[in-house]
From TrEMBL:
Residues 1-22 form the signal peptide. The chain crosses the membrane at residues 481-501. One of its GO terms (cellular component) is membrane. Residues 516-594 form the Signal transduction histidine kinase internal region domain. This is Tetratricopeptide repeat protein. The keyword Cell division does not apply. It comes from the Bacteria. GO terms for molecular function: phosphorelay sensor kinase activity. It comes from Gelidibacter gilvus.
Length: 721
């Protein structure tokens, strides 16, 4: 009896184990749905068969087009049933997203042979499949396969497929303007709901918001599949969110949610609940957001672990925004455990929000927000360690800076200073990396442009070949066709040149913005390091009270500097306030070396002028540290602002110090290098800003007087906006 009971228990355990595994496999499959392409052709003639019924065992359904092509939403393991009255039903099990090629032998048609046509179609499909395989790995190789496919193309439908895949490649590599161009070419060759949806999304990513909205609204809803209809409402809502029309966005998301729920499109039900919650949150309706986040979190937990973690992180971000730090910390700790399991099976890219270093950084930040320094420090240290191991310099920079702030708030100024120095080193390393990435991006863009030009030329050549063919068959229209071909070619070249010019102009502007940001990021650490040296000197001399007073004023200055660090221009009033505070700090340290005065012409309305942040401070710093500090008797620093004319003012920084030539003699080689780097930084900033803003700022440097101590005079001319 006991033996029978033992076997019975074993059988029950086996059954439960199999049931759990089956549920886990099902959950994994549910969130990995994708669109698979395919074609149905005759085996002998390789001619396409239209109106073939394609059905998935999960319920999705479509028919082949006139070209024998079809697309259908599937998951790995699904079984396709391919039915038609002229051949026996074919069953096919989905194993990957590769193109499905079905060849059948019709019962009612006599076989004919066209090996050339068959070989051409097979070659075309092979090149397209190779392009899709390399789409996310190697853009240049993928584009090369598309070029070869276009050379094999024998129909407008194949041209449309090739340009669609080319658009997909550009979308993945974030070249959205090129993606728009190629999707439009695809639609010119053959209209498709799938490509129209992709084009609308590419318009949004390319910041052509009205075009995106118009395209979504003009699509024929009745011709869309349930999946496509859900994508339409979701895409339209995404565009509305981008332009901050939140009520319209929520309305569209909810329409998509109704379709997804009605037709059991589970991944989209989760996504749309999450997006509705996020939109409610950014529109200030946190109560409604909480309800939808709760739904999304519950639904995501029933999908695979990656989707579950993604939703936990999204909800944690919401809790952080609303200062629910305790809930946020608990949820991020759960996410961290899941991330550790995911990383055992796959590598998570540093760009993903699901990295352990980012979650540790955010947990540490949440503890810091709660003033729980003891818990904040180990999480931030772990984030720094992991970021360093995974070469994630951005997170390493942010976590190091946050750790310095924690030490400072906790009163451990020595560790705060040491950590801040480590932060400046990471910033310098990150700057070098960004320069390398910019160089690589420029090279990548050149290569992509060359290949796109080749494809554009190929398209022009194809059109010209068609024109020549028509000339041989329609002699009566020869002259007219030649004229049209030439005009079309010229227009195509002009359009290509226009888009190239527009893109280069946008790229140059973006590069200038990035260069400005990089230069500003160099200024702040340099300025902060010098100020901290001053604090260090007071501490070294055991003048703790003076150090504390200096540090208090320095913190006010730092707050002002950091508030302005991301701006290209700030009001002149703010720059003057910053300059007054900085000069006060320097005078506090060198009281016996100089006096100073700041005068502003009463006729100047300083609120009417804008100035690059931290432009004047380096000149004042040079005046004190390299001019007045070495003067034998007490010197004077004069900062004055005068009106030059109705649209310009001059800002003069004059000192009666030892002058530039004498200062060079006294400097060490390292000091010369640092000073040259600082002044070079300012010159680059002024040059870039003048290029972007039509010579808004002018800087002139000369000797101040004809005495033994010639001093230095810097005159900054500033134009009104």
């Amino acid at each position: 009896m006991q033996k029978i009971l033992k076997y019975f228990l074993i059988l029950i355990l086996c059954f439960i184990t199999q049931h759990i595994q089956a549920q886990e496999n099902e959950n994994k499959r549910e969130s990995t749905s994708f669109i698979v392409r395919g074609s149905v052709r005759e085996s002998d003639s390789y001619k396409p068969i239209s109106k073939v019924n394609i059905e998935v065992n999960g319920g999705a359904y479509t028919v082949t087009s006139n070209d024998g092509e079809f697309r259908i939403q599937v998951k790995k393991g699904d079984e396709l049933a391919i039915r038609h009255k002229d051949f026996e039903t074919v069953y096919y099990t989905i194993t990957s997203n590769e193109r499905i090629s079905v060849e059948v032998k019709p019962a009612l048609r006599k076989p004919t042979s066209d090996l050339k046509y068959q070989r051409s179609v097979q070659n075309f499909n092979s090149f397209i499949d190779s392009a899709v395989t390399y789409q996310k790995k190697d853009a240049e190789k993928s584009i090369q396969f598309i070029t070869e496919a276009l050379l094999q193309s024998t129909s407008s439908k194949e041209n449309a497929d090739a340009y669609e895949v080319l658009g997909d490649v550009y979308v993945h590599w974030k070249q959205y303007d090129l993606a728009v161009s190629n999707y439009r070419i695809s639609l010119q060759n053959s209209d498709s709901n799938e490509v129209n949806l992709k084009l609308a999304e590419a318009y949004r990513n390319n910041k052509s918001y009205q075009e995106s909205i118009d395209l979504y609204k003009n699509l024929n809803i009745s011709s869309l599949s349930n999946w496509q209809l859900t994508i339409l409402y979701e895409g339209l809502a995404d565009t509305y969110v981008t332009i901050k029309e939140y009520d319209k966005a929520i309305e569209s998301y909810k329409k998509g949610l109704v379709v997804a729920q009605k037709h059991l499109i589970k991944p989209k039900i989760t996504d749309l609940n999450s997006k509705i919650a996020q939109t409610y949150n950014i529109s200030g309706k946190t109560n409604q957001a909480q309800d939808y986040f709760k739904n999304a979190l519950s639904l995501a937990s029933k999908e695979n672990k990656t989707r579950s973690v993604k939703e936990k992180v999204t909800v944690a971000d919401f809790q952080n925004t609303n200062r629910l730090y305790t809930d946020e910390i608990e949820l991020r700790k759960e996410a961290l455990k899941d991330i550790e399991e995911i990383e055992k099976e796959s590598v998570i890219d540093n760009e993903s929000p699901l990295t352990s270093q980012k979650q540790n950084y955010k947990i540490g930040s949440a503890y810091f927000a709660k003033k729980d320094y003891d818990n904040a420090i180990p999480y931030l240290e772990k984030s720094i360690k992991e970021a360093n191991k995974k070469e994630d310099l951005i997170v390493q920079k942010d976590a190091t800076r946050k750790l310095s702030d924690v030490y400072y708030d906790a009163g451990d100024y020595k560790m705060a200073l040491a950590t801040y120095k480590a932060y400046t080193e990471v910033v310098d390393e990150l700057y070098i990396k960004k320069e390398q990435e910019l160089s690589q991006a420029a090279r990548f863009h050149r290569n992509i442009t060359e290949k796109q030009n080749r494809i554009t030329t190929l398209e022009s050549d194809n059109k010209l070949s068609e024109s020549l063919f028509q000339l041989t068959t329609e002699r009566n229209k020869r002259q007219e066709l030649i004229i049209y071909s030439l005009v079309g070619g010229v227009l195509l070249l002009l359009i290509t040149a226009y888009f190239m010019y527009k893109y280069i102009k946008q790229q140059r502007f973006a590069n200038n913005l990035l260069a400005l940001k990089s230069l500003r990021s160099q200024m702040n650490p340099h300025f902060i390091f010098n100020a901290l040296n001053s604090v260090n000197s007071f501490i070294a001399s055991n003048d703790e009270r003076t150090a504390n007073k200096y540090l208090s004023d320095f913190s006010q200055l730092m707050r002002a500097v950091l508030e302005n660090s991301d701006e290209d221009f700030i009001p002149l009033r703010k720059e003057i306030e910053l300059l007054e505070l900085y000069t006060k700090l320097e005078h506090f340290r060198f009281k016996d070396k100089f006096d100073y005065a700041i005068t502003i012409d009463d006729s100047i309305n300083i609120d009417e002028y804008q100035i690059p942040p931290m432009l004047l401070q380096p000149y004042v710093e040079n005046a004190v540290w390299h001019g007045l500090r070495y003067k034998l008797e007490k010197g004077h620093l004069d900062i004055s602002i005068h009106k030059k004319n109705n649209t310009e003012i001059t800002i003069t920084i004059a000192d009666d110090g030892i002058g530039r030539q004498q200062s060079k003699v006294l400097k060490t080689e390292n000091q010369k290098k640092q000073n040259s780097k600082g002044m070079g930084n300012i010159k680059k900033r002024v040059a870039i800003l003048n290029e972007m803003n039509k010579d808004k700022v002018d800087v002139f440097v000369d000797n101040f007087q004809d005495a033994e101590d010639v001093g230095t005079k810097v005159v900054v001319t500033l134009k009104k906006d």
